[in-house]
Design goal:
By secondary structure, the protein is α/β, with parallel strands linked by helices. It has two domains: 137 residues, 3-Layer(aba) Sandwich (Rossmann fold), CATH 3.40.50.1360; 71 residues, Alpha-Beta Plaits (2-Layer Sandwich). The chain has six helices and 14 strands. The strands form three sheets. A seven-stranded mixed sheet has the order 3-2-1-4-7-13-14, with helices on both faces. Helix 1 crosses helix 2 and helix 2 packs parallel to helix 3. The relative contact order is 0.16.
């Protein structure tokens, strides 16, 4: 146990250290966003994922001189508003099959580059875009890169009518589902009018198999396991730099 003065000093320094860490991470994300948008210069249709990292990329795309020749498909109202603020031209959903590149983030990425996504609730729309895009670019901070999935819940989008039935099936499969809700207890409802069961599994040794098993449950609309490997991964580091992993 630390002596009292050392404990007090650590208590005072902790907020400063946390702030410094977050600033360095933010600088890394800004740098990688500037680099990532270079990949959009030749694109005609671009998909936009959701979340804070995607928002950084959207703001950088807004600075491109040729942005007026590009159409954009957002995955959520949050990112659509951000794109509108940046002066980006929205595309009709009929353009989804023509997406050249999609930029998105991730909640976790394992050592085989499978991903858990859906922390913001846009997993269904994100998977539609990722499955349609010619090229996929994922950006995340280094804490999101893990050896294997375990402990992090998998978001599962479910039709409200199937809530109890799906929850029972998930328990039978060894999962621990929890209805996503706001602080006051109101259920979180996606932009598709669905609910989310955040489900924890002891381990997920085969994400592709687990994805298919979960999607076979009647009432499940989409699963937050993304097993298509992206073409480029950007890893933001705590020292303010970033790493690029390309395939």
């Amino acid at each position: 146990m630390l002596p009292a003065p050392a404990t007090i000093l650590l208590y005072k320094l902790l907020p400063l250290l946390t702030h410094t860490y977050l600033l360095s991470l933010q600088n890394a994300i800004q740098k990688l966003a500037k680099d990532a948008v270079k990949l959009a210069k030749e694109a005609r249709v671009v998909g936009l994922g959701s979340g804070s990292t995607a928002a950084f990329i959207v703001r950088e795309i807004g600075k491109l001189s040729g942005k007026d020749s590009i159409e954009f498909v957002p995955t959520s109202l949050q990112i659509k508003i951000e794109a509108e603020k940046s002066g980006l031209r929205m595309a009709d959903e009929n353009r989804i099959p023509d997406i050249d590149i999609v930029f998105d983030g991730a909640d976790q990425i394992d050592n085989n580059f499978n991903m858990i996504k859906g922390g913001g609730g846009a997993l269904l729309r994100e998977k539609i875009l990722i499955s349609s895009a010619k090229k996929v670019v994922i950006a995340a901070d280094e804490s999101k890169f893990v050896h294997s999935f375990g402990g992090r819940s998998v978001p599962i989008e479910v039709h409200p009518m199937a809530r109890s039935a799906v929850a029972k099936k998930l328990v039978e499969m060894g999962g621990k589902p929890a209805l996503r809700a706001f602080d006051k207890g109101y259920p979180f409802v996606t932009e598709n009018g669905s609910i989310i069961l955040d489900t924890t599994f002891a381990s997920i040794p085969d994400p592709k198999k687990k994805e298919m098993e979960l999607k076979s449950i009647a009432g499940v609309l989409e699963v937050g396991l993304f097993t298509r490997r992206a073409d480029v991964y950007y890893k933001a580091k705590r020292d303010g730099s970033f790493e690029t992993i390309a395939f």
